[in-house]
Amino acid sequence: MNIGAIDSGRIQSMLTQLKAAAADRPAIPSQAISKIGDHDLITKTQKSKSAPTVDFAAALRSSLDSVNSSQSKAEEMGKSFALGDDSVGLSDVMIAGQKASISFQATVQVRNKLVSAYHDIMNMQV
């Protein structure tokens, strides 16, 4: 009863594709960024308090691992219930399955939005 769990190979493949796509994009000169609409954006952001950086790959990996663990948990609960384990109720199995399904659907929608945004950015004329 596999409900589409995401294995680490697929996660690595997705990360590799994202890194390759990021490497293919052309670099924007810093002068073009620093003066947009007569506002000095670079120096203002450098003067302001530095925000903590978040590693996108780590955030993506943790969210995909979370989805994978919820799917694995739902699968294990379903197996336990099917084998007659009295500690697992049908309602618990159904709730775990729905949580896994919703988290997977949300992940797919986020991926679709990211791909769409990437295509929109790549199709912009500079």
Automatic annotation (TrEMBL):
InterPro entries: FliE. GO terms for biological process: bacterial-type flagellum-dependent cell motility. The keyword Transport does not apply. Keywords: Bacterial flagellum, Cell projection, Cilium, Flagellum. It comes from the Bacteria. Its main location: other. GO terms for molecular function: cytoskeletal motor activity; structural molecule activity. GO terms for cellular component: bacterial-type flagellum basal body. NCBIfam families: fliE. Belongs to the FliE family. This is Flagellar hook-basal body complex protein FliE.
